[in-house]
Design goal:
Blueprint: H1 3-10, H2 14-20, H3 26-43, H4 47-54, H5 63-75, E1 79-80, E2 83-84, H6 86-97, H7 99-109, H8 117-136
Antiparallel strand pairs: 1-2
Helix pairs in contact: 1-3, 1-4, 2-8, 3-5, 5-8, 6-7, 7-8
Amino acid sequence: MKFFTIVAVFAFVAVAAAQEGIKLSEEQKQKVHTLGAECLTETGASEAAVRAVGKGDLSQVDDKVKCFAKCLQGKLGYFENGQVNEAVVQSSLGKVVGEEKIKAIQAKCNGLKGTDDCDTAFLLHKCYVAENASTLV
C-alpha cells in the first residue's frame, strides 16, 4: 500500500502537508506505511476501500474501515481511550500545518462521538479532513 494513501486517509491533516508542499521525512513515511499495513492486517479492512477513502470516496466505508481509522490513529498516538489525545496531535501535526490551525480544527472536531470507538475515530477523520480542506482553500 502506498504511503500517501494511508496518510491522506487517516493521519488526520496530512492532506494539508501535501497541499502546503511540506515534505515528511523518509522515517515518517516508513512509520505510517508500516503502521498502516499492520492495521490492514489487524482489522481486515479492504485495501481498496481504504484507498477509496483516501480519494474522498466514502461509498465503501464499512465497520472494518472505521476500525482501520481507530487502529492507525491509535498507533500514531492520536486516539486513545475513545478520544483524541490533543497533546500528541498538537505536537505532531501542529508542526506540519501550524499550531493555530490544528487548535481550531480540534475545537471543531474533538468532541464528536460515534456509536463505538471505531465510529468515533472515523467521524474524527472526516471532520479533520473537512476542516482542513476548508481552512486551506
